[in-house]
Amino acid sequence: MKAPLFARPLTNVHLEQIADQFAMSDLTLPFWGCRKKMPMRLIVRLEGEGNYTVFHFSDGSQLMVSLTLKKMESRLSPRVFVRPHKKSIINLLYLESVNPDRQQMSVSLVNGDRIEVSRRKASRFIKQVRGFQQELMDIDAKPTAPIVVVA
């Protein structure tokens, strides 16, 4: 059984608004002897490979940095990024659905990736997803301030 997360897909404008609400700043990453700033809202998921972390971005590009997944987890916004498995961190903004199964729960991301959720982390993961959904509903329910044009 597939449980959809969002009623409608998020647009780039909506992603930027949500990123602002969650205070998702830029992330400074070491890259070939220099540092690059990357907007957190563009990160779909992170994948650990030993002492390296592979970033998967919304445009399909990837970047490998020489930091462990544990170090990267401490730099990310815990309200938006969750760790469903010891080798993965996902951005809940790009979560398409949760796929419960008797044997192994998994999640589908909007870019087509499918990530397994470890049995030990499953209940905590579901709580984090539900909390995130509630925060999104609260953001959508807030009235927006009218734009005042002064002539």
TrEMBL record:
Domain HTH LytTR-type: 37-122
Pfam families: LytTR
SMART domains: LytTR
InterPro entries named among the record's database cross-references: LytR-like (IPR046947), LytTR_DNA-bd_dom (IPR007492)
Record GO terms (molecular function): DNA binding; phosphorelay response regulator activity
Highest taxon of source: Bacteria
PROSITE patterns: HTH_LYTTR
Annotated protein name in UniProt: LytTR family transcriptional regulator
